[in-house]
């Protein structure tokens, strides 16, 4: 197949600030630090990346697309992300899920998953 996933584009009021936050949260590398399009990747030559683009409107509703992350230690990772500036987010979860819903500094929800069941 001739189709490769290049990046996920995230609208941001401040692409540089949000891109820097995600870069620190993920431990990724900056590959474009333009104020209009700030891009990070796991490594400069590894895809996909996250591209933060300028958008004047504020986020008002739950994201229709979000990222899920599976760390070695969910609770420790949640605490680390909260210390970086994430916050808990309510998207209607019941409270007994094996994941934690957080939001980045601009309110974009993402999940920190628990241990994978079944190995």
TrEMBL record:
Pfam families: Glyoxalase_6 (PF18029). It comes from the Bacteria. Residues 4-115 form the VOC domain. Gene3D superfamilies: 2,3-Dihydroxybiphenyl 1,2-Dioxygenase, domain 1. This is VOC family protein. It comes from Streptomyces liliiviolaceus. The lineage of its organism: Bacteria, Bacillati, Actinomycetota, Actinomycetes, Kitasatosporales.
